[in-house]
Specification:
Elements: E1 13-19, H1 23-34, E2 42-48, H2 55-65, E3 70-74, H3 86-93, E4 99-102, E5 108-109, H4 114-124, E6 128-139, E7 144-145, E8 157-158, H5 161-166, E9 178-180, H6 182-185, H7 190-193, H8 199-209, E10 211-224, H9 230-234, H10 241-260, H11 265-281, H12 288-299, H13 304-314, H14 321-329
C-alpha cells in the first residue's frame, strides 16, 4: 500500500526496512522508527519478501496504526531468490527523500534523535555523502550484548576511505547509515547491483562520492548469531556453488571499483587479497582446490606476498600463523 504526498509535503528522509521472517524482532525494529523525533518530515518504507511467519501481519498493524508514517509492500512471491535485481528495483521506487536511512527487520535504533543528529550534520555539510555511528551488538544465541561494539573510533571523526574499502561490509553497521539518495540513484554500477551483498558496495560508493562522518554515540543495535540473517544462514555453509558465486560477485565488485577509481587501486587490491586469504583459510580442505580454481583470476591480480600466503594455506602449511594474527589484529571483516 502507498501513501501519496503532495510535492510540498515530500519527506526529507526515507527509511527502508527489508524483512524476511523477522517476526520475533520486528516490533522492536519498527518501534525504533516510530520513536524518532525530528524537525523534518520522514517516511518509513517496509518491504516484506513473502515471509512465512507473522512478519506481514505485524507490518500491516503498523501501517494501520501510523498511516502517515509507513508505506509497505507485502510480497506473495520472494523477490530476493530471483537474483534478477527485482528487489533492488522495488526498493528504489519507494525511496523519495533526499536522504535514505537503513534498518533491517532484525536490527533496531535506540536513540530517538538518531535521524535528527545525522541529517542535521549532512544538511550543514554538503561535501559529505553519508553518516554512520557506533552500534551495539546483540548476540541472539547468547541472549546478551557483546562487549565489542561496531565502531570506527573513540570519538566523532571522518571515516578514511581506505578503511571503508579494506575493512569490509561489517566495518560500518548498516543500521547506522544515513546517505544521500543520489549516491545510489544516478548511474549505480552493474557490479554493485549484482553483488551478493548490498551494504558493502553502497558504503564504498558513499566514500567515492563524498566524505563519510562517524558519530561515536551508540544509536542502534546490530543483531548477530541470528539464523534469519544472511550471515547466520551462510557463515557455516560448505563451499557450495551459491557461496562461490557470491564470493565471485564481491570480487567482481571490488575489481570494478578499482578500475573506475584507480586512485584507490592499492586499497582495493589489499582488500581482494585479505578477502581471499580469509575465505581460503576458512574453507574446508576438501573444498580448497575447487574454490581456488574459481577465484584464480583474481589471485593473479595480487602481488607476490598475497600469493605466497594464499598458496601456503592451499598447501596446509602452518608456518604462517603470524600472518593470520596480523590480519585478525586489523579487524578485517568478511
Amino acid at each position: 500500500m502507498m501513501n501519496t504526498l503532495k510535492e510540498s509535503e515530500q519527506e526529507l528522509v526515507t527509511t527502508y526496512t527489508l524483512v524476511y521472517n523477522h517476526g520475533p524482532y520486528l516490533r522492536q525494529c519498527l518501534d525504533g522508527l516510530v520513536m524518532q523525533k525530528t524537525n523534518f518530515k520522514f517516511k518509513c518504507f517496509v518491504h516484506d519478501d513473502a515471509s512465512t511467519d507473522d512478519s506481514a501481519a505485524i507490518i500491516q498493524e503498523y501501517v494501520d496504526k501510523y498511516p502517515d508514517m509507513f508505506d509497505a509492500v507485502l510480497e506473495t512471491e520472494n523477490q530476493y531468490s530471483k537474483h534478477d535485481g527485482s528487489l533492488a528495483r522495488i526498493v528504489a521506487q519507494h525511496l523519495k527523500g533526499k536522504y535514505v536511512a537503513m534498518c533491517e527487520g532484525d536490527d533496531y535504533w535506540t536513540d530517538p534523535l538518531k535521524l535528527q543528529k545525522q541529517v542535521s550534520f549532512l544538511e550543514s555539510h554538503p561535501d559529505y555523502s553519508a553518516a554512520c555511528s557506533r552500534t551495539k551488538q546483540f548476540s541472539q544465541s547468547k541472549g546478551t550484548f557483546l562487549q565489542q561494539d561496531v565502531f570506527c573510533a573513540d570519538h566523532d571523526e571522518d571515516v578514511p576511505t581506505e578503511d571503508i574499502i579494506r575493512k569490509g561490509g561489517l566495518y560500518l553497521a548498516s543500521c547506522s547509515l544515513v546517505y544521500k539518495r543520489e549516491v545510489r540513484s544516478n548511474n549505480y554500477p552493474e557490479y554493485c547491483k549484482k553483488c551478493h551483498v548490498g551494504d558493502y558496495p553502497l558504503q564504498i560508493m558513499c566514500a567515492m562520492k563524498g566524505k563519510v562522518r562517524y558519530f561515536n554515540d551508540a544509536m542502534g543495535v546490530y543483531r548477530v548469531d541470528n539464523s534469519h540473517s544472511w550471515v547466520g544462514q551462510t557463515r557455516y555453509m560448505g563451499m557450495t556453488e551459491r557461496k562461490i558465486n557470491g564470493v565471485l560477485s564481491e570480487l567482481t565488485m571490488l575489481k570494478g571499483f578499482m578500475v573506475d577509481y584507480p586512485e584507490y587501486k592499492k586499497a582495493f587490491l589489499d582488500r581482494i587479497g585479505e578477502y581471499l586469504f580469509v575465505m581460503i583459510r576458512n574453507t574446508e580442505k576438501a573444498d580448497k582446490q575447487k574454490f581456488y580454481q574459481a577465484v584464480q583470476p583474481f589471485v593473479t591480480l595480487l602481488d607476490w606476498r598475497w600469493k605466497l600466503l594464499i598458496n601456503a594455506f592451499l598447501s596446509d602449511h602452518r608456518i604462517f600463523q603470524s600472518a593470520t594474527y596480523r590480519l585478525n589484529s586489523k579487524r578485517i571483516n568478511y
